[in-house]
Amino acid sequence: MKILVAVKRVIDYNAKVRVKTDNTDVDLTNTKMAINPFCEIAVEEAVRLKESGTASETIAVSVGPKSCQEQIRTALALGMDRGIQIETEDSPESLSVAKLLAKVVAEEQPDLIIMGKQAIDSDNNQTGQMLAALSGIPQATFASEMKIEDGKAVVTREVDGGLQTVAIDLPAVVTTDLRLNEPRYASLPNIMKAKRKPLAVKTPDELGVEMKQHTKLLKVAPPAERQAGVMVNSIDELLEKLQSEAKVI
Amino acid sequence: MSTYTPPLQDSTFVLDQLIGLDQLCQDLNLDEVNSDLAGVVIEEAGKLAADVLAPLNIVGDHNGPKVSDGKVLETAGFADAYQQFVENGWATLTGPEAFGGQALPNVLGTAVNEMWHSANMAFGLCPLLSQGSVEALIAHGSETLQQQYLPHLISGEWTGTMNLTEPNAGSDLAAVAAKAVRDGDHYKISGQKIFITWGDHQMASNIVHLVLARLPDAPAGVKGISLFVVPKFLLDEQGQPGDQNDVCCISLEHKLGIHGSPTCVMSFGDNGGATGYLVGEENKGLNYMFTMMNHARQSVGLQGLSISERAYQQALQYSQERFQGSNPDGSKAAIINHPDVRRMLMAMKSGNEAMRALALSAAADIDRAHHGDAESKKRVEFYTPIVKGWMTELSQELTSLNIQVHGGMGFIEETGAAQHYRDARILPIYEGTTGIQALDLIGRKTLFDKGAALTQLQTDIQATVELLNSAKNTELNALGSKLGKALSKSQAASQWLLENAASDKQLMGNVSVDNLMMMGYLTGGWLIAKSALLADQLSSEENNYGSPFLNAKVATADFFADHYLPRVGQHAETILSGLKSTFAIDIDLL
């Protein structure tokens, strides 16, 4: 069984997010970048399936400029077998990424594609669903548990009302939620081995995908600064403030 | 509770720019190692340090190990953390490939060790002692001992200890009294050893004690001491831990700091003699210990940086959360806005960055020396007492500043600021006190070669002064002038010492610590100034650091020059006074 995992390079979740002074975008100059945490969970799941003998090969693919090779290397250091970088400019939109990934899926013919349910930078939660649709294969999103049984993926999904368990035919797309697993730390021997693992670079042209931008980023603004609290003297005053100032009741 | 953030950017800057890691690895014929790989190694080690080891630091301080029936039970949580450390292969970092190591350069191991000790120094001592045992066995162990012990020590599956000190043999190892008696192909060891760090615990399946002991017919003094391997569990036919050897921990010390690290009184041979195996030849034990000295002493110096870095991070965080006094607009001021608090933070930051530059430079020289570079070997010899002596002394001041930033909240234990200060206090003591380092620097490293290594260092510093003076950036010119002034003051004192101290042992001992501190501030000031020079050069080209970091490097070097470099002149003045007053009055008047 072959598993494909998509990994996205995003701002490190520990790093402080700054907005550019002209409000055009988030300022990423010299900011620490990392694998999107949901993608890291996807990598962990793939590596576990490989370790348990269920999977025979695991591939990490990332879309972006050359710098995203760092995140592919990290995935390789966590135990993935080989990497593919699809060279594009920064921040292609979800649909373009899904189209590129669909081509890779067509080439590689994986039995399972595991992806993060969303990336912590743009929080779109779209690419996995789009990829499943474009590839014409089943999907199970927000996975908190997954088993491979009799050629099917049995996936427990975190839905609004609780947990839903579905069985889907393979090949399929599964997107990960936070509770699927706890990713490991990269081990030193695997970091050393990662350098020698193959990493192929492809372009949208080679894959026959035309990169189009359907959305335009108009403005990015930081959240309003939190105001200092005030002490109120009575319940009445509190109600008055909630009504007239906070306008929440 | 204080969190720990690995200083990835500064470590990377020092490794890649100041040390020139790519060139170093080429020189060492390490084809597969480069700055990219080093960056990943540091980042991943940093995750384990910050997430797993750092939270256990305060736990170890509050709940130290316990001993019962000769067995030490380490702090809860340490065993799991150690297992993760071993499973992730971190113990193997610098070990030779032949025994399962990753054979990465010492300088990278040093950058990683900095993080273990910042995260949890009491924990970090355990793998540190194992590294020492590994080095001893690689250098002097027979092939059999190497095959039996090295793979397990390098993997971290077993840990190592150093058993040198006895109640009457501390700095003076000539007084070692533990006995070794020949018994067929091995020896029977008996005696008591004290201050044995991680002498017993349950985290690993075996413990390999390296023990100094004396044979019955050995010459008196330091020339009659031999080194033995004494495993906690004797190896069975498969080379696995079997029967318990005649060694146990009889008590644990109650200490000022590093509570999480069991400091054991070890008893050997209570039931007829512990089985020991000779390392190398008889009566050469002390020489063998000295071959490990550079690395061991530099490691302790590094702990001075580690603990100061952790203290700095805590002070930085607290100073932004604590509001006292007002800003000009009337709003409450975070104390970081108060000039004196800012001064203390800068004193910590600049001290740490100078120490990091020195620790990694010295570590890289060990790599070059191992590779056969004679000049680097001399430089390592010269640096080692400075790294150990100066950095651990400076850590006293910097961890104290963290308490000062906290004010009264630092003096109470709940904030954890006091822990770093208490933990740091051992550093100028173990692995050779500051006094011992100072005598080493002035005697064996300066007077003995008639100042040759010193002159080479002065020449290198002068070269940086000239580069700073001719730079386009006026800030660098100012830095060059301050460094040049400190250099010439130190040169006057050093010259005077070369002319007067060799013939006067009392004078030599009297001014030795001033000489050590003078050389420390000078060398640290030089390397941070050199870093500023590189930062300035980088800022005009495309780089991975960004102008805020590079500008900060120049400003931090400038702060060091204003705040610490004048101390070079002060120590020089003290040296030139000859300190006759030290012995001016009789003992009964003291």
**Top CATH class of chain A:** Alpha Beta
Instruction: Indicate the percent of residues in helices of chain A.
Output: 25-40%
Counting structural domains of chain A, the number is 1
How many DSSP E strands of chain B?
A: 14
Shape, per Cα inertia axes of chain A: globular
CATH architecture classification of chain A? 3-Layer(aba) Sandwich
Radius of gyration of chain B, taken over Cα atoms and rounded to an integer in Å = 24 Å
Number of domains of chain B: 4
Largest sheet of chain B: 8 strands, mixed
Strand content bin of chain B:
5-15%
By DSSP (H or I, 4+ residues per run), the number of helices of chain A equals 7
- Distance between the ends of chain A: 56 Å
Biggest beta sheet summary of chain A: 9 strands, mixed
How are helices and strands ordered from N to C of chain A? EEEEEHEHEHEHEEEEHEHH
**Number of helical regions of chain B:** 19
Q: How many E strands of chain A?
A: 13
Largest inter-chain contact set: A-B, 17 and 25 residues
Mean pLDDT of chain B: 95
Which SSEs are present, and which pair or pack?
The complex is a heterodimer of chains A (249) and B (590).
Chain A: E1 2-6, E2 9-11, E3 18-19, E4 26-27, E5 33-35, H1 37-51, E6 57-64, H2 69-77, E7 82-87, H3 94-108, E8 112-116, H4 127-135, E9 139-149, E10 152-159, E11 162-169, E12 172-176, H5 188-194, E13 199-202, H6 204-207, H7 235-244
Parallel strand pairs in A: 1-6, 1-8, 6-7, 7-13, 8-12, 9-12
Antiparallel strand pairs in A: 2-5, 3-4, 9-10, 10-11
Helix pairs in contact in A: 2-5, 3-4
Chain B: H1 8-19, H2 21-27, H3 35-53, H4 56-62, E1 66-68, E2 71-73, H5 78-87, H6 106-140, H7 143-155, E3 158-163, E4 179-183, E5 186-197, E6 206-214, E7 225-231, E8 233-235, E9 241-244, E10 247-252, E11 263-268, E12 274-279, H8 285-291, H9 293-321, E13 323-326, E14 332-334, H10 339-370, H11 374-406, H12 408-411, H13 417-424, H14 434-447, H15 452-469, H16 474-500, H17 505-539, H18 547-563, H19 566-577
Parallel strand pairs in B: 3-6
Antiparallel strand pairs in B: 1-2, 4-5, 5-11, 5-12, 6-7, 7-12, 8-9, 10-11, 13-14
